[in-house]
Amino acid sequence: MLSQVYRRSSFRTGAIIALLVVLFVLTFFFPPLFESFFSLVKDSFISIHLLFEITAIFTSFSIALYGWVSTRHMEQEIPPLLPAFFLAVAVFDLFHAFTFMGMPEFFGEVNNHNSTWFWTVARLTEAVVFLASASLLSRKQQKPSHNLFLLAAAYTVFVSYVIFSESFFLPQLLGENGPNQLKVLLETIVAVLHLTAIFVLFRQVRHEKRNVPGEFFIASVAIIFASIFFMSYSTTTDFFSLSGHIFKAIGYVAIMRVVYLRNIEEPFLKIKLLHDRNRSILNTVDIGMIETDAHGVIRFLNIPAKLALQTSDQQGLGKSVYTFNAAGENVHDFTTMKRTNGEQFPAEVERFPLMEKGRVTGYVYTMRDLTDAIRQEEMEKEQQQLEFELKTAAAVQNSLLQSNTHNQHDHIGVISIPYRQLNGDFYDINVTRNYTLFSVADVSGKGIPAAIQMSMITYAMEQSNPMIEEPHEVLGSLNHFVSRYTADTNFITMFICFFNELTGELAYSSGGHEPALVYRAATGEIEELQTKGAGLGFIETPTYETRFTRLFDGDFVVLYTDGISEDRGREEIDSPDVLKAGMLQVDRSLPARIVAENLLDYVQANKIAPATDDQTIAVLKKMENRRAAGKESQV
């Protein structure tokens, strides 16, 4: 995991700190061990000093630069206060180096007074900012702004101005024998601030269980040792002064490393991990995907694309996507594609642009090999051609025979208005001696395809028998028929009722259709009838259910399609509220066919937006004395 990649173990941190402690003990308590080495570089101390200062300046500017870069693009894990004010540290160290005794007069008079004050201010700034940043590690970092860098720049200008122009007001920091009491006090403050930072960081590790970078501890220890040396030297060019610069450089490098790892490298590794994960996800989809640059040069192919084109990364990456187009180079029509071996195959290809700042930087192509689908479709069509012709002809004949059957019965009536010339809505009425089979369906789409499916479902309905089947069984049979004989993209919703005229019992089932509405004459209220079940053709083996209710004298049921309930001019586009209002106002004593017509007129008059779909309303009334009439007919 990413956290494991960058987590520095306590053992490694402890080992480095132990090494620093050993180095400090040897150099501080046993300086004669290094006397021969120091004697070699003593005469070149100014150059050695400049070398270490350049290292510190470069490191400080790098810390600030890392913070600036990450400020522009991402949230920072390291508090932005640290890199922002290391800009000031870098400038102060720069002025310290160029005002050091023995250097050319780049910025005016060279003297130890100004040089030491720049040095001390840089150390104090670094220590205060370091402690503040250590305290802020436990807080969630927000995306920083550049205001901190502007504040650090203003601080740098102000302090530099004071030291350069008002230095005679500043007290001396060096005596005849090295640092005076004020200088020792200021270096002590630096050391105490870093000791406090170590305590704060250790508390976060022990009590808050935070993954604190080990480089923070290393930096504090190194800078504390540097402060001890800078409190102890006799002259600015002795061995202790050189040792202090070495430990200071180690501390700064440790800070630069943690800022780089946490604010630069780790975020980009996260991006790379996310990039690789997204590529892995794209390899799991079942369609081919090709990514190209703005000129069509392939940068990525997922596994389905490689299989379809029979290519590999070595063969495909870097090539133009048009080399796989059978129509030729620079032809955007990808209806026929070409494999690596030259074999052509039909394909469904779509292209989507990749935009960045309003400019197209590349394209993503989705590709589906249609070879198997076309072959299977052709085989099915050849096998079913004769069956469809015979069944469609029979369905047309049956629909013609029963088209006016409902007009012979006052208790049932239907009105259906197609949106276009051909109707995609379907209704079926089959009145036997004691039963009425009553259903309404809506075929997906409009026009000729919907009309053909309507004819097919009409034929299939002829096979149902309310005497031996329940509504959910009829829907199950119809779903098998639709799934087998229609395209995967087509479906049908249906509501079917079996009404027992003797008992008033109404059995009903729905296949993804709008709920039926029942007006109760006894209460003047409207109920909704609905059951669970998917539309016909959605899935191969759905589950449907049959429910029962009872109609009493004066009650009536209304079945309808979504062309009735849909009104794109209203906030709630699909609602039967207008139809319900019409059921309460219509003259219910009229024959069912007239009631259906009046309901349609009411709905159309109260629509805000014009209808954009077929409209069908079917009405089944429970007639008074219907049961008695049935008994007399039986006698």
UniProtKB/TrEMBL annotation:
<protein>
    <recommendedName>
        <fullName>PPM-type phosphatase domain-containing protein</fullName>
    </recommendedName>
</protein>
<keyword id="KW-0472">Membrane</keyword>
<dbReference type="InterPro" id="IPR036457">
    <property type="entry name" value="PPM-type-like_dom_sf"/>
</dbReference>
<feature type="transmembrane region" description="Helical">
    <location>
        <begin position="46"/>
        <end position="69"/>
    </location>
</feature>
<dbReference type="InterPro" id="IPR033425">
    <property type="entry name" value="MASE3"/>
</dbReference>
<dbReference type="InterPro" id="IPR052016">
    <property type="entry name" value="Bact_Sigma-Reg"/>
</dbReference>
<keyword id="KW-1133">Transmembrane helix</keyword>
<dbReference type="Pfam" id="PF07228">
    <property type="entry name" value="SpoIIE"/>
</dbReference>
<feature type="transmembrane region" description="Helical">
    <location>
        <begin position="116"/>
        <end position="136"/>
    </location>
</feature>
<feature type="domain" description="PPM-type phosphatase">
    <location>
        <begin position="410"/>
        <end position="622"/>
    </location>
</feature>
<feature type="transmembrane region" description="Helical">
    <location>
        <begin position="214"/>
        <end position="233"/>
    </location>
</feature>
<keyword id="KW-0378">Hydrolase</keyword>
<dbReference type="InterPro" id="IPR001932">
    <property type="entry name" value="PPM-type_phosphatase-like_dom"/>
</dbReference>
<dbReference type="InterPro" id="IPR035965">
    <property type="entry name" value="PAS-like_dom_sf"/>
</dbReference>
<feature type="transmembrane region" description="Helical">
    <location>
        <begin position="184"/>
        <end position="202"/>
    </location>
</feature>
<keyword id="KW-0175">Coiled coil</keyword>
<dbReference type="Pfam" id="PF17159">
    <property type="entry name" value="MASE3"/>
</dbReference>
<feature type="transmembrane region" description="Helical">
    <location>
        <begin position="81"/>
        <end position="104"/>
    </location>
</feature>
<keyword id="KW-0812">Transmembrane</keyword>
<feature type="transmembrane region" description="Helical">
    <location>
        <begin position="12"/>
        <end position="34"/>
    </location>
</feature>
<feature type="coiled-coil region">
    <location>
        <begin position="367"/>
        <end position="396"/>
    </location>
</feature>
<dbReference type="GO" id="GO:0016791">
    <property type="term" value="F:phosphatase activity"/>
</dbReference>
<feature type="transmembrane region" description="Helical">
    <location>
        <begin position="148"/>
        <end position="164"/>
    </location>
</feature>
